[in-house]
């Protein structure tokens, strides 16, 4: 008897058929009804398998038409459960980005914000101010590292909010975390990495795609395990210390200090600190960035505006130590900056006028209120539901400890018209059913219904 649920085996078999070329890009994929009849398995099993294929971009749906195979060459050449949110271009054009074969009434999704509170008027004013200045330079290619006005604002912001010390000239702006990591691997040529287990998907995707050596160190409740740092030749450590993805754990000061000391002992050692959603800390004293502890320029600081502004903003940034900045400048093929010049100026104006800071302060309260409400409801069932990773960010983990299996939990969620993300999509070593609960995008007036559906699905 297989240790994996049937829907996992089906999903893996179908994925392998696509990878091996049994289906070509654009081919119509079998309907769920046809596959159910052919394999004599339940509709729920096929629903789960297709949902994984959809989430990971191997297939896409067209309204009233069916499922189609995605462009295989554009898919990541790694196990797809390490990078679950790949969208196919046709989905955007056909308007099916938010459409799934199963229409869920309740969803605890990651990477969503509460757009209701976004200061659209102030952002529109920043855009108007930028274009009213009649800058013809907005029509041309910008600086390869990003526009100076935005790098200046970022340097000011990360110093005041996270304690990160960086000159604007050390900052590089990109369109995504993945793009900047890809650039970093060129700068850190011939390096070997240590990353977290489980890990943030973009880092593993880039390393696997470029065949760069790495090992994975287990993440505990106090941060990544470090007992082997001096036993291996790997010289680059990638961590998400302020809110580890996906566990939500925060690295303690002892491990932060130990990691800094390790990096400072050899010239080729560096730490990549991904601070992806640290703006939102709700309980306890704010923890400064790992980079703020560094006195020898050994930390590369990386972050994004996806959560603090909006996901479609597509602006990420990193700060380079001076030695690595020289390496970057010496790269023969750096390419042009991929973030639109006008958008960089708009965000810079938005930050310059204080609107960004006011927006963050407001959203910190909004998300804290949402989290507090959900936790208060779940707390009544603390003998069955174990909560972790609630100090920071816009997601936490929920472990089910009442005898239900993962497949039973998912089936019960389906019955509630509820979509929740299994933790084993990122870490298949977890023995108990565990889920990643993203709550940022749920409107307040729907929060109680969402939470009730979650409890109904997971509590017995």
UniProtKB/TrEMBL annotation:
Task: Tell me its cofactors.
Answer: pyridoxal 5'-phosphate
Cross-referenced Pfam families: Aminotran_1_2 (PF00155), GntR (PF00392)
Family per record: In the C-terminal section; belongs to the class-I pyridoxal-phosphate-dependent aminotransferase family.
In terms of Gene3D superfamilies, this protein maps to: Type I PLP-dependent aspartate aminotransferase-like (Major domain) (3.40.640.10), Winged helix-like DNA-binding domain superfamily/Winged helix DNA-binding domain (1.10.10.10)
SUPFAM superfamilies found in the cross-reference section: PLP-dependent transferases, Winged helix' DNA-binding domain
* Top-rank taxon, per record: Bacteria
- Protein name per its UniProtKB record: PLP-dependent aminotransferase family protein
| Alphabetized UniProt keyword annotations | Aminotransferase, DNA-binding, Pyridoxal phosphate, Transcription, Transcription regulation, Transferase
Q: What are this entry's molecular-function GO terms? A: DNA binding; DNA-binding transcription factor activity; pyridoxal phosphate binding; transaminase activity
- HTH gntR-type domain sequence ranges: 4-72
CDD domains, per the entry? AAT_like, WHTH_GntR
Q: Which organism is it from?
A: Staphylococcus argensis
């Amino acid at each position: 008897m297989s240790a994996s649920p049937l829907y996992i085996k089906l999903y893996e078999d179908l994925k392998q058929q696509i990878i091996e070329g049994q289906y070509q890009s654009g081919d119509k994929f079998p309907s769920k009804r046809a596959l159910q009849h052919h394999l004599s398995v339940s509709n729920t099993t096929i629903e789960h398998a297709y949902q994984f294929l959809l989430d990971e971009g191997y297939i896409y749906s067209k309204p009233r038409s069916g499922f189609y195979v995605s462009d295989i060459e554009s898919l990541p050449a790694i196990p797809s459960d390490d990078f679950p949110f790949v969208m196919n271009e046709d989905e955007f054009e056909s308007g099916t980005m938010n459409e799934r074969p199963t229409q869920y009434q309740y969803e605890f999704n990651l990477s969503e914000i509460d757009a209701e509170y976004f200061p659209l008027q102030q952002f529109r004013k920043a855009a108007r101010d930028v274009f009213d200045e009649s800058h013809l330079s907005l029509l041309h290619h910008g600086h390869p590292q990003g526009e100076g006005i935005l790098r200046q604002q970022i340097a000011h912001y990360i110093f005041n909010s996270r304690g990160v010390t960086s000159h604007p000239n050390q900052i590089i702006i990109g369109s995504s975390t993945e793009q900047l990591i890809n650039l970093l691997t060129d700068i850190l040529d011939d390096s070997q990495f240590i990353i977290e287990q489980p890990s943030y998907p973009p880092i593993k995707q880039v390393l696997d795609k470029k065949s760069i050596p790495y090992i994975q160190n287990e993440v505990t409740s106090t941060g990544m395990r470090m007992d082997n740092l001096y036993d291996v030749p790997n010289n680059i450590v990638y961590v998400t210390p302020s809110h580890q993805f996906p566990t939500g754990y925060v690295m303690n000061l002892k491990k932060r200090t130990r990691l800094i000391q390790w990096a400072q002992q050899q010239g080729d050692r560096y730490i990549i600190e991904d601070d992806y959603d640290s703006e939102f800390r709700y309980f306890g004293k704010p923890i400064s960035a790992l980079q703020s502890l560094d006195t020898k320029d050994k930390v590369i600081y990386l972050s994004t505006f996806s959560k603090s502004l909006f996901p479609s903003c597509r602006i990420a940034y990193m700060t380079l130590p001076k030695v690595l900045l020289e390496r970057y400048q010496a790269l023969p093929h750096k390419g042009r900056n991929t973030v639109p010049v006008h958008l960089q100026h708009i965000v810079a104006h938005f930050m310059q006028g204080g609107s960004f800071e006011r927006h963050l302060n407001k959203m910190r309260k909004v998300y804290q209120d949402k989290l507090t409400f959900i936790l208060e409801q779940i707390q009544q069932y603390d003998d069955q539901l174990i909560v972790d990773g609630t100090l920071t960010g816009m997601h936490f983990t929920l472990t089910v400890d009442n005898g239900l299996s993962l497949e039973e939990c998912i089936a019960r969620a389906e019955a509630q018209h509820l979509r929740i993300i299994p933790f084993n999509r990122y870490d298949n070593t977890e023995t108990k059913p565990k889920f990643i609960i993203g709550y940022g995008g749920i409107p307040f007036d729907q929060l109680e219904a969402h939470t009730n559906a979650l409890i109904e699905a997971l509590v017995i």
